[in-house]
Amino acid sequence: MTHPSVTTRARGGAGRGTAGPRTTAPWLTLAVLSLTTTSVAIQQTLVLPLLAQLQAAFHTSPASATWAFTATLLPGAVSTPPAGRFGDLHGERRVPVVCLVVLVIGCAVAASAGSMGTSCTS
User: Fold this and answer.
1) Global pTM exceeds 0.70
2) Could you tell me the residue range of the domain that residue 64 belongs to?
3) Which long-range contacts (CB under 8 A, 24 or more apart) does 28-35 make?
4) Nearest by Cα to 44 from 73, 65, 66
5) Does residue 95 lie in a domain region?
6) In a domain, 15, yes or no
7) What's 47's DSSP letter?
8) Distance (Å, rounded) from C-alpha 16 to C-alpha 6?
9) What is the pLDDT of residues 29-84, one digit of tens each?
10) Measured CA distances, 79 to 29, 75, 85 (Å)
11) How many structural domains compose the chain?
12) Residues β-bridged to residue 15
């Protein structure tokens, strides 16, 4: 049988006057991670059916319109490993929220673009 202070300390509680780690509600972490995952999935799959309409709306070639799809996949592939590391360092709740804010800002910039050249080069 272990000493009660060892068991309490292992569970994250205070033991012998030391403060335990700050804990967050697991449902809140799950909600933020679920929202992040859903947002990324929607962002990546939403562009594919729109490629023909993007080509017509922006008067561009099929190759340029395909960059709209690549532009949604590339930042996700590049940012996933650092975001995971930052989540380990700074908290698994804070980093997904920052990623969602960046996603919303990127969507606003893309929505305000007047052409494919503007959205890809600005």
Assistant:
1) no
2) 24-121
3) 28/93, 29/92, 29/93, 32/93, 32/96, 32/97, 33/92, 33/96, 35/96, 35/100
4) 73
5) yes
6) no
7) S
8) 9
9) 899 889 988 887 887 777 788 888 888 887 888 888 888 778 778 887 888 899 88
10) 20, 6, 10
11) 1
12) 18
Three-state SS at 15: strand
Query: Which token pair is 70?
Result: 């690549």
Q: Which two tokens stand for residue 5?
A: 């202070």
Q: Return the residue matching tokens 């799959």.
A: 45
Report whether 63 contacts 112 (CB < 8 A). Answer: no
Place of tokens 């959205």: 119
Is 112 a member of any domain?
yes
Residues in the chain: 122
Separation CA 4–CA 2 (nearest Å): 6
Burial of 15 (C-beta count, 10 Å sphere; 0-12/13-18/19+): middle
Q: Helices 94-111 and 62-90 sit at what angle, rounded to 10 degrees?
A: 160
Which tokens go with 8? 């309490």
Average of pLDDT values for 6-23?
53
- pLDDT greater than 80 at residue 86: yes
| pLDDT of 122 over the 50 cut | no
